[in-house]
Amino acid sequence: MKRGHLHHLELWRDDATATEGPWPWLLQQLGYSRTNTWATGCTWSLEEAYVVLESGTDHVRGRSDRRRSGMNHLALWAGSRADVDTLTNEAPQHGWRLLFADLHPHAGGPQHYAAFLEDDAGFEVELVAEEPAAPA
Question: What does the alpha-carbon distance between residue 19 and residue 11 come to, in Å, rounded to a whole number?
Fold first, then answer.
């Protein structure tokens, strides 16, 4: 049953058509493939779900603020705890900054293993480990 599963997400970005940078790197690392491009955007697909990066004519350029009304962050399954650690270690070289570093990898609580990353435009991604954390 598909009810409730992600169909797609569309993010408006100043650099939506870039082949390098935070989002192309992260989506590739998570198994997405670039499946469609046009003058103002592109689509990254993984099985039936997809992410659109767009900077169309209605796009207002500028930094996102996750604390304002709107989307706070996108949470994605990132594999094992080791996979989350690898992505976290590599992310700064690709335009991501670790949030809540003093609480990492348990910023979401003691039983929640994840990395909270922010890109250069202020978008936050939570990379969640599929394995439960060890009991405290």
Answer: 15
Report H helices in the chain. 22-29, 81-90
Q: How confident is the model at residue 90 (pLDDT cuts 50, 70, 90)?
A: very high
Provide the 10 A C-beta neighbour count for residue 32: 20
Number of Cα atoms under 13 Å in the Cβ half of residue 130: 6
Max distance between CA atoms of the chain, in angstroms, equals 50
Nearest to 43 by CA among 7, 79, 76: 7
**Peptide bond just before 135 cis, omega within 30 deg:** no
What tens digit of pLDDT does each residue of 15-31 get? 888 899 999 999 999 99
Q: Which helix (H) or strand (E) segment is 35 a member of? A: strand 33-38
CA gap 39, 79 in Å, rounded: 33
List the one residue out of 1, 87, 13 whose CA is nearest residue 48: 1
For the stretch 54-63, pLDDT in tens is 988 887 788 7
Mean pLDDT of 113-122: 94
